[in-house]
Amino acid sequence: MKHPAILEGLLVTGVEFESLPAALSLPAESGLYPVTLVGVPHTAGQISVNGYQTSVFGVSSDCLLESLPAVKTNGCTVEVVPALPRLQITTSLPRSAHTLLPSSGDEVSSSASVQLFNGELQQLTIKLENIGTELLETLEISAKTINNKEKLYGDFLSWNLEELLAQFPLESGKIAVFTVNIQVKLDFSCQENLLQDLNDDGISIAGLPLSSPFRQNGKLRSETKSTIFNSADTNSKSEYSPIKTLEAILNFKYSGGPGHIDGYYRNLSLGLHVDVEPSVFFTRVSTLPATSTRQCHLLLDVFNSTEHELTISAKNNEDLILHAGECQR
């Protein structure tokens, strides 16, 4: 037989508080049953939670925490700050399947992931919706990389804060939209697994043997992007993957309403997982004798692994334009 019961709410003292009842049915001899009681404070100040109130078959009972032998405390005190707005964040990128674990202990509210070629620009559209009842008045944005061991040139996240703040103050139910530019510049040079495969005979890229000086066009298959270089050693147990990973956190610090007057604010964090592939590969290295016996000409076959045209610049040389999937010397 089940006994219907109503947990009418928490027993509190202090500020004005609305307890939300919870109804449940307990089977006979069910043992301990976890129940979560919630409530909404309507004024700022301190709340002392002293116990809870139940109603079974219309009979109400007040259960004080100090009367329960298994509870080691007489209650707890909660500080209620003045009302603040609440933000909800959505992005134009898919949610990340990777779990970000910041060493600083920051809590990530949402996450997104993207895969880019080195130097490629990707625009991330972010929508901030005020789902609270208070006016959103101030917003600060900061970014930091986490668990990063790669050599990174410059900041790879940028945005126009003035463009975003022009949409403020943000009323309840309204949405502000802004763009974050993602452009990663990493150092892919001097990697032992890459250098040991370079020889006069060339190597195979995505299954396409490339020989110089002839141009060959070839589009990388999506399933081979993670292992573009095939090892020259057929007995090798693992394949070299040129993909590097960056992780970062965008933090939104915002405030408004009565809480802003008293100096309170909220934090909202967006995690970003970025996989980066090299844009070009040197597929073959060879030399030619120069006019001096102490010098030689170093010849490099360069392959554009992206799906776009790119320009390679070298010191004291003309720019080299490579079409998608093209190799040139």
Describe what this molecule looks like in 3D.
It is a single chain. The chain has 329 residues and is mainly beta. It has three domains: 2-80, no CATH class; 87-187 and 243-277, Immunoglobulins (Immunoglobulin-like), CATH 2.60.40.10; 202-228 and 280-328, no CATH class. The protein contains three helices and 22 strands. Strands 1, 3, 5, 6 and 7 form a five-stranded antiparallel β-sheet that branches. A four-stranded antiparallel β-sheet has the order 8-10-13-12. It has a four-stranded mixed β-sheet with strand order 9-17-16-11. Strand 20 and strand 21 (320-322) form a beta hairpin. The longest helix is centred in the middle third of the chain and has 5 residues, at 161-165. It starts with a strand and ends with a strand. Mean pLDDT is 77; it is low at 192-240.
In short:
This protein has 329 residues and is mainly beta. Helix content is 4%, strand content 45%. The protein has three domains: 79 residues, no CATH class; 136 residues, Immunoglobulin-like, CATH 2.60.40.10; 76 residues, no CATH class.
